[in-house]
From TrEMBL, chain A:
Pfam families: 4HBT_3
Positions of the Acyl-CoA thioesterase-like N-terminal HotDog domain: 63-160
Gene3D superfamilies (UniProt xref): Hotdog Thioesterase
Protein name: PaaI family thioesterase
InterPro entries hit by this protein: HotDog_dom_sf, TesB_ACOT8-like_N
Organism: Antarcticimicrobium luteum
UniProtKB/TrEMBL annotation, chain B:
Keywords assigned: Hydrolase
Protein name: PaaI family thioesterase
GO MF terms, alphabetically ordered: 1,4-dihydroxy-2-naphthoyl-CoA thioesterase activity
Biological source species: Antarcticimicrobium luteum
Lineage: Bacteria, Pseudomonadati, Pseudomonadota, Alphaproteobacteria, Rhodobacterales
CDD domains, per the entry: PaaI_thioesterase
Transmembrane segments: none
InterPro entries assigned to the protein according to its UniProt record, in alphabetical order: HotDog_dom_sf, PAAI_dom, Thioestr_dom
């Protein structure tokens, strides 16, 4: 049997990027912090664009630890949600247009989150990548690290546990 | 002593990120600080329910713990977070303000240990709890 012809690259990219944008922009707090995501295939990198309102110590100046914590948490949740939704985005079961219209899938909920502050955050853009250590049906454990100028010099890292959204039981189900 | 409390309050209220989130320092002194934050739609984490994002609660917890350290009689001045763990016990009720109380319960020459609790109008059921370690400036 002949292999089906692969979809054109721009169709694939457009679908994935539209789904990602809808997912990220659906959270008002991510927009408030100026967080965006870069995507390479299914790999995501969070970007927190520098803004004066992220400053925690005006004398140094340095980023607020809370802004960094929030950035790490947003990156962890989006990465976790994205990995869970990826198959449905690929099959077309999740429609990016529906998502953009506000019909967003549920995202994982944070149970706990522990942040290590390794260096003070400089007044410039920050980047973060999350690794899913374990993702089960109900719980997930995620590690996330953030850097600024040098990728190998993390300025903060965190580990968190998350409650996974439960699949909706179809009507008539027991 | 009063001066140090005043300095700490001015310092906290001058933090751009604290201002952006609408934080207000209502009590400070002797290693204890209270910060409140009104409900704000820009801070929503779940658009369907209108619940505030955990990250905004983290930011308030971090600020409040730092303020508690600065107000401790044995802390000479500024502080930075070494680590902070937050447990999210329940979603904060949309529309209600969140209030965090932080206590610096132990301090050494180099480290301050802090605990904090966040509540909304239902003060008997905390929204979140935090434990952290903070730096202490050398004298």
């Amino acid at each position: 049997m002949a292999r089906p012809r692969p979809e054109p690259v721009q169709v694939v990219k457009q679908r994935r990027d539209a789904a990602l944008t809808a997912l990220v922009d659906g959270v008002p707090y991510s927009r408030f912090l100026g967080i965006e995501f870069d995507r390479r295939g299914d790999e995501l990198t969070g970007v927190m664009n520098f803004d004066e309102k992220l400053i925690g110590n005006p004398f140094l100046p340095a980023l607020h630890g809370g802004a960094t914590a929030a950035f790490l948490e947003v990156t962890a949740i989006i990465t976790l949600g994205w990995s869970q939704l990826w198959p449905q985005i690929e099959t077309g079961a999740l429609d990016p247009q529906d998502m953009a219209a506000g019909r967003l899938p549920r995202l994982p909920k944070t149970i706990d989150f522990t942040v290590d502050y390794l260096r003070s955050g400089l007044p410039r853009d920050a980047y973060a990548r999350a690794t899913i250590s374990r993702s089960g049906r109900r719980y997930a454990s995620v590690h996330v690290a953030a850097w600024q100028d040098h990728h190998d010099k993390h300025y903060a890292q965190a580990t968190g546990h998350f409650l996974m959204p439960q699949p909706v039981v179809p009507d008539g189900g027991a | 002593m009063v001066d140090k409390v005043k300095i700490a309050r001015q310092f906290i209220e001058a933090i751009p990120h604290a201002r952006a989130l609408g934080m207000e320092l209502t009590e400070i002194g002797d290693g204890r600080a209270v910060i409140t934050m009104p409900y704000d739609e820009r801070l929503i984490g779940d658009p369907e329910t209108g619940v505030i994002h955990g990250g905004a609660v983290s930011a308030m917890m971090d600020t409040c713990c730092g303020a508690a350290v600065m107000s401790h009689p044995s802390a000479p001045g500024a502080t930075a977070t070494i680590d902070l763990r937050i447990d999210y016990m329940r979603a904060a009720t949309p529309g209600q303000r969140i209030t965090t109380t932080a206590n610096c319960y132990h301090i050494t020459r180099s480290v301050a240990f802090v605990r904090a609790t966040a509540v909304d109008d239902d003060t008997d059921r905390p929204v979140a709890a935090a434990t952290g370690a903070f730096t202490v400036e050398k004298r």
